């Protein structure tokens, strides 16, 4: 019996993607060779890379002038590549601090210049998204994190700025309709809605690059990777291929508009139960609740053992909350079927019945 | 029919590894979850990472005081991480230039300090390993590339130096017995003898770190990765797991001593034919010939069409030489069975028979 997988990341992927990618590890494209033992310079793999990049452009409705890259190093390396590529020597940038990942991004950027943290929700363990902050003028870029897995918050309205807008979209890219023309740089680790751990998606507006005056190391330079079509060095072949399959799955399903509806339905089902059932309380501020990561706690900690047994018995896995928040976190990414959310809601209702 | 896969990298992996890793993509360790959809913080994946690291230590007979890391970014990112971690501010380093990969390593290191290229075989398209060069005193480290895939050369005797010794061992690690106490830092992209593209092995002597006076970005800092047991950020789960399986395969086979014998036998078979058959000539200097990549050319370029048809018909793939050398390159890494080398030798003998 397949588990109901609520893991925060690496996380659930479509079953058909897992099946196809396992087949390719044995025999890829009827080549009588494994996907992972062919040259990345082969026509077959170049096709995979090009298809993956063009699916990203199509699904996100990217306008002309943006490049799509599949790199390595995760969002964590992008925390460094962002200032290397966008922060002028003696330049400044503004960061919105919405949690642990923003904090890490700020730390790395500070190595290269003056970073202004213009808003933070640290005062309430990041359970809300800051609003009504002022972005200083004369900055090179504004950086934000669209979705905060640990706390279950999500930005609904992105900062308005004349500076460049950068977004770490690791945990909610491909989950909802967004106007990408508002962003100049978007990056995302694959291991939530796109694929397995091991590759990082970068979407960057070409015209913003090459303007910092910095001598950028090759592997950290977006222009180097663009000029080599994401093949400056050997790409993570398996992760790129599996991402391509997941993007194809999403396209066949009806694209972002279709998945957004499914995601809203799943989230509503779960949040409604949290709000209705007096044994649970939501962690994040209602207006900032994430469609991807639903964080909640027991009203009475003494019920923990009972509830944990209920969801374990129901075949649910990955529900434990992050240590900094406690309680529970149900990550309901694109590939999560509504049936699994229904199973979780049932166990919450069972708890109510058992303890009255 | 499985192909005879002579690809230079990503390259052949053991068949049983491909089978097991494909199974894990469907259902890992009877968890009823895929390997690529579980948390890297799960006990099951932490076991994989620890097992992979301890297999490296065991197979290479590493002494106490060395750390083993599985990172991302390939050798290309190590070209930058090496000087970041070892080159003092205003320090100097010496590099041996044995080809395209050394050249790239030199380029990145130059961003951080004074780099002396103390020897180069560029004068003869890198078809030999330089010897009898002088390493200056008062340098922080010496950097060399143990095996040069493009040209088919391999270092047999490593530089003797009082400075730190760094080696890019991407294309021949785990292929021959070496005394690792002579090295202070070794790195290797996985995609030859260790696993699929997507992870990089780093072996570093702990006591050499933290001495440059540099403020190193987190993702480029070996000490950060060591302190987090290679889990500072989400590791490339699939690539690490497949590497672990390949290392287990190697251990079960008898370890490095056993594979070295097999590798010598395969290489001898092929080099003997190149030297015997007047229709072929080897590219690399005899004393520097690689056990991993056998480079050769036709004596008469007019035979190309005939020979290409012969090996294609025999089910051989990946034999084309690198564009900078031309001709042929037979990469005969650890997982290549001797039967495939025999098939290649037979096609060479067939050419001889056909054209006399």
UniProtKB/TrEMBL annotation, chains A, B:
It is found in: Cytoplasm. Gene3D superfamilies: Aspartate Aminotransferase, domain 1, Type I PLP-dependent aspartate aminotransferase-like (Major domain). Residues 5-344 form the Aminotransferase class V domain. Pathway: Cofactor biosynthesis; pyridoxine 5'-phosphate biosynthesis; pyridoxine 5'-phosphate from D-erythrose 4-phosphate: step 3/5; Amino-acid biosynthesis; L-serine biosynthesis; L-serine from 3-phospho-D-glycerate: step 2/3. One of its GO terms (molecular function) is pyridoxal phosphate binding. It holds the Pfam family Aminotran_5. Belongs to the class-V pyridoxal-phosphate-dependent aminotransferase family. SerC subfamily. This is Phosphoserine aminotransferase. The lineage of its organism: Bacteria, Pseudomonadati, Bacteroidota, Flavobacteriia, Flavobacteriales.
């Amino acid at each position: 019996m397949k588990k109901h997988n609520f893991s925060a990341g690496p996380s659930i992927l479509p079953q058909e993607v897992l099946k196809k990618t396992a087949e390719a590890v044995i025999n890829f494209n009827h080549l009588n060779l494994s996907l992972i033992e062919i040259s990345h310079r082969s026509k077959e793999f170049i096709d995979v890379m090009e298809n993956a990049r063009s699916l990203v452009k199509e699904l996100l409705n990217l306008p002309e002038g943006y490049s799509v890259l599949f790199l390595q190093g995760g969002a964590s390396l992008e925390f460094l590549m962002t200032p290397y590529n966008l922060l002028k020597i003696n330049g400044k940038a503004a960061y919105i601090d919405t949690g642990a990942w923003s904090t890490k991004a700020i730390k790395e950027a500070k190595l290269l210049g003056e970073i202004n943290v213009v808003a933070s929700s640290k005062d309430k363990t990041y359970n809300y998204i800051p609003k009504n902050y002022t972005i200083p003028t004369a900055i090179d870029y504004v950086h934000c994190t669209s979705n905060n897995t640990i706390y279950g918050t999500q930005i609904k309205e992105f900062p308005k700025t004349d500076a460049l807008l950068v977004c770490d979209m690791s945990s909610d890219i491909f989950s909802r309709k967004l106007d990408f023309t508002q962003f100049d740089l978007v990056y995302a680790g694959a291991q939530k809605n796109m694929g397995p751990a091991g590759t990082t998606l970068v979407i960057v507006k070409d015209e913003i690059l090459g303007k910092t005056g910095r001598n950028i190391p090759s592997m950290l330079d977006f222009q180097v990777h663009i000029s080599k079509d994401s093949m400056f060095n050997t790409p993570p072949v398996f992760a790129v291929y599996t991402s391509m399959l997941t993007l194809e799955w999403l396209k066949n399903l009806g694209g972002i508009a279709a998945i957004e509806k499914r995601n809203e339905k799943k989230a509503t089902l779960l949040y409604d139960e949290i709000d209705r059932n007096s044994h649970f309380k939501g962690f994040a501020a209602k207006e900032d609740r994430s469609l991807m990561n639903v964080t909640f706690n027991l009203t009475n900690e003494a019920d923990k053992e009972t509830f944990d047994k209920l969801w374990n018995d129901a075949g649910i896995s990955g529900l434990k909350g992050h240590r900094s928040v406690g309680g529970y976190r149900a990550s309901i990414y694109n590939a999560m079927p509504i049936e699994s959310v229904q199973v979780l809601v049932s166990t919450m209702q069972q708890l109510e019945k058992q303890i009255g």
